[in-house]
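Give me the fold.
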Amino acid sequence: MRRSAMALAASIVVGIGSLFGGSIVHTEASKLSNLENEKTQIQKNRSEVDANISEADEKIKKLQSEQQKVNAEIKKLDLAISDTNKKIREKTQDINETQKEIKKLQGEIKVLEERIAKRNELLKDRARTFQENGGMVSYMDVLMGATSFSDFVDRATAVATIMEADKDILEQHKADIEELEQKKQKVESDLAKLQQMLAELETMNKQLSSQRAAKDKLMKELVKQEEEEHDHKMELQEKNKILKAQEAAMAKAIQLEKERIAKEAERARREAEARAAAARAAAAKKSSGGGGSHQSSAQAEAPPVTSGNFMKPTNGIYTSGFGARWGTFHYGVDWANRASNVPVVAAASGVVIKSYYSPSYGNVVFVAHYIDGQTYTSVYAHLDMRAVGDGAVVSKGQFLGYMGNTGHSTGKHLHFELHKGEWNDSKSNAVNPFAYGVPR
C-alpha cells in the first residue's frame, strides 16, 4: 500500500508537470504567432512604403520631364524675343533713315514750293498783261507792226519763242506740283508703314515677354514641386529604413522567442522531472525543502531597475507629458536633468531596431519589446551619444546613451515615446507611457 501511494503521488506530480508544460508551450506558441503576425504587418507596411517611394520617383521623373519641355519652350520664346528685338532695332533704324529722308525731302519740298510760288507770281503777271493787252491780240500787233519781211520773220520767231517759253513754264509748274505731291505721299506712306510695323513688333514683343514670364512662373512651380517630392521621398526612405530595421529586429525577436520557448519547454520538462523526483523522495523520506534568493543591483547614476513591464528610463525632473502642447501634439514624455553624463537605459528588454542620428530626434534609439503577447516600441530621443547599435539585444535597465540636446531640442532632456505595436511616421500607435506602467 505504501509503495502504491508513492507511485500514485509521483504519477500525479508528473501529470501536473506535463499539463503545466503543455500549457506553457501553447501560450508561447500563441505569443510566437503574434510575433509572426507583427513581422508580416511590418513587411506589408514596408511594401506600401516601397510602392510610395516608386510613386514618388515616377512623380519626380514626370516633373523633370515637364521641366525639360518648359525649358524647350522658354528657349523657343527666347529665340523669338531675340528675333523680334532684332527686327525692332532694324525697323527703328529704318524709321530713323526715313526720318532723315523726310528731312531731306522737306528741304527739296521747300525749294519746290518756293519755285512754284515764284512761277505763280510770274503767271499772274502774264495773266494781267493778257487781260490788259487782250491776250493773243498783242502778239498780232507785234507781228503786224513789222516794217519788212525780214522784220516780220524776226518778230514771228520771237513770238513763237515767248509762247514756247510760256508753255514750258506751265508744264514745269505742273510737273513740280505733281512731284511735290508724290514725294509727300511717298514719305507719309513709308513712315506710316514703318510705324505700323514697329507697333506690331512691340506688341508681339510684349506678348512674347508675357509668355516668357508665365513659363518662368511655371518652371519655378515645377522646381518647387520637385523639391517637395524629393523631401517626401527622403521621408519615405527614412521610414523605410526604420521599418526595415524593425523587420530585422522582429526577426531576431522571433528567433529569441523560439529559443526561449525551447528553453522554457526544457526547463518545464526538467522541473517536472525534478518535482517527480522530489515527490518520490518525499514519499520515501517523508520530508522536503528548498529555497532561493535573488538580488539585483543597478548603477548608482542610473535609475533602479523596478518591477513591472517598464521601468523609468532615466533620472530627472518630469517636464512635459503626453498630449496637446503649444498648439501641436506631444507624442511622448520628457525628463530633464542638469547634471552631466546622465544615463539613459532601456525601459524593458528587447532588440534595438535603429540607432542613428535623425534631423528631428537627434541621436535616437528605437527598441522593440515583446511583453505578454504584445509588441511595443520605445523611442529614446535627443541623446548626447548612443552606446548601442542596430540589432543589439538589450536587457531592462541596460545603458543606451547619455541625455543630450541634439536634433529639434531646446534644452538637455530625454524625449521618451512608447508605441503599442510598431513605430510609424504618423505616430498613430503612440500611447501615454504612464498609462502602461512607466514610473514618473
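The CA atoms of residues 143 and 155 lie 6 Å apart.
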